[in-house]
């Protein structure tokens, strides 16, 4: 049965457009002979757009994006110290705004150490885990404030907000992932210090674990978790954690897997109320933009996550397999487009 | 001129007493022929004490400890899942209580990758940095709460409190450290998300940097900092950061340096209003307690920090040099006491 998927594409800034071009190339190739068509609408959003007309995320564009079936995003953000961007917070105003408005309560970030990719770790072992990071709560809610700003008496507060509703839905998703994988779930938090949020997370994990008796549950403080990520990353299967700890752990995970040039992610709304958004974990890297130096693999693996989310597991598997083959054959430096072309050629 | 230092000793739980015994052995040996005498008073505090008489930190003992010149602590905390400890939070009630009551606003944690110690990193490079972690504010203040506890409508908040007063004093300390070292300071925060606290930290770093024009200042988001800690840790000299980020980064730093069996720390009150407290970064490791399996090196290096803090730089240097020599000569497994004895023998 022919099916059309409305895909919103946000190439973004820096290397974003380059890696998105390769991701779309692979998406088109892998679905070419299928009955699924991707109808793409591009949205020019990011630091570049802001510098041109002062817009970060106009309401009308947000409303359109909300109607899409899925979103592919490259990377957003300008040069770190660009004074013209100091006032705008592109991260909060665009990226986090999308995650919150589209209720992306699951931020899914897999980590695999491919046998042919050199990890900075001497002996990483067989690493294959996913981090299920909460995406709509915690210290990311933007709930805080300052008084006596700019004076020696300034006080700045940041409030981490955690709800049973919000924690439960992401924890249930994580258990389902673990159940379909190696059946091991590790809650990461800092319950000995953040006692209020910590008690809530532990209670919910205990409760939901009753529904998944086959899943073994473990707990680690966030500081200890970073130790294990470098000394024994193979121990992990599914990690579930809050928004901020998940941010930290997934960058670290990306690094140990051989660089965030390989790290894909999905900002998922499992209920389907709003479109889910797929993006590489890396940033816009303005210093190498437009030079065909960026590795599009993370963006291409994000397409695999997108295909999985849309129920196109077969196509997703073909993309992942092609990426594996490409990684195994890598020698010398290639341009962004060359990597994309190679992966297209390797599609089974 | 003869001098007596009142030293409060808190051996604590698990491997705490074993590593403290070796640390004191080294302290006694290195000061044996000097005019400094350490008058030691032992305080039985920790999970063990709580299980015996229900006390975590009695007011009278806290008052006595406050009068000491310095504190040496082993490790506190019982078995992770001991139900008898569930109600008491030894970490908050004892360790954090001491840090807050004694106004330990600098948590100083050096990381060195010793040439003879195997790091989990393939190629760590020449790593020698210190983390200056804020110790009395941030998400550690215990400011938060829960409503509708135990129901599907529970909300749990955690408030990170940051003050210009608190940030400035730790930032100034960090700049002074950098100025006496390789003159590079990296602020680690998450200013793009935690905008209120982030603006405060950036402003204070900018302001204090005027007083230290010789120090080069860099900024990294906490997620990016974890990447660099595994891909290029040699780039760091002094890192200054908040209480929670510092907790995470120093465990990771300990891991990359070859294990937190080597990581020392000082909880410092630079003003001298209250005694500073020196402790290994590692925990009480109840699983190997009493078996002479623990490495006392972190506790012994904490003695070196203690000596430095007391102005006994020469003795501190002798301890560090002996530890270096011991690490260089390590072969096979040795008992906790054997490591201590070896380091004593190697004291110049
Ligand atoms: C850009 C930033 C707001 C974002 C985050 O903190 O979530 C990024 O680090 C990520 O992990 O996707
Ligand atoms: C035990 C715990 C409260 C403590 C902390 O979080 O500070 C520990 O992890 C540390 O780093 O000293």
Helical/strand content category of chain A: alpha/beta
Q: What general outline of chain A do the C-alpha atoms trace?
A: globular
CATH superfamily of the largest domain in chain A: Isopropylmalate Dehydrogenase
Mean pLDDT over the full residue set of chain A? 96
Number of strands of chain A: 12
Biggest chain-to-chain interface with counts: A-B, 63 and 63 residues
Strand order of the largest sheet of chain A: 2-1-3-12-11-4-5-10-8-9
Rg for CA atoms of chain A: 20 Å
Discrete helix count of chain A: 11
Bound molecules: 3-isopropylmalic acid
Low-confidence stretches of chain A: none
Largest sheet of chain A: 10 strands, mixed
Question: Between the first and last Cα atoms of chain A, what is the distance in angstroms?
Answer: 22 Å
The first-level CATH class of the largest domain in chain A is given as: Alpha Beta
Tell me what the structure shows.
- Chains A, B: It is an enzyme of class 1 (oxidoreductase).
- Chains A, B: Its cofactor is Mn(2+); Mg(2+).
- Chains A, B: Its EC number is 1.1.1.85.
- Chains A, B: InterPro entries: ICDH/IPMDH, IsoCit/isopropylmalate_DH_CS, IsoPropMal-DH-like_dom, LeuB_actb.
- The structure is a homodimer.
- Chain A has two domains: about 1-105 and about 275-348, Isopropylmalate Dehydrogenase (3-Layer(aba) Sandwich), CATH 3.40.718.10; about 120-255, Isopropylmalate Dehydrogenase (3-Layer(aba) Sandwich), CATH 3.40.718.
- Chain A has eleven helices and twelve strands.
- The first copy, chain A, has helices at about 15-30, 45-55, 60-65, 90-100, 165-180, 195-210, 220-230, 245-255, 295-310, 315-330, 335-345; strands at about 5-10, 35-40, 70-75, 105-110, 130-135, 140-145, 155-165, 185-190, 215-220, 240, 265-270, 275-280.
- The first copy, chain A, has a ten-stranded mixed beta sheet, sandwiched between helices. In chain A, strands 6-7 form a two-stranded antiparallel sheet.
- In chain A, helix 1 (about 15-30) crosses helix 9 (about 295-310) and helix 1 runs parallel beside helix 11 (about 335-345).
- The longest helix of chain A is centred in the last third of the chain and has 17 residues, at about 315-330.
- The model of chain A has no long low-confidence stretch (mean pLDDT about 95).
- At the A-B interface, helix 4, strand 6, strand 7, helix 5 and helix 6 of A face helix 4, strand 6, strand 7, helix 5 and helix 6 of B.
- Strand 7 of chain A pairs antiparallel with strand 7 of chain B.
- The structure holds 3-isopropylmalic acid (2 copies).
- One 3-isopropylmalic acid sits at the interface of chains B and A.
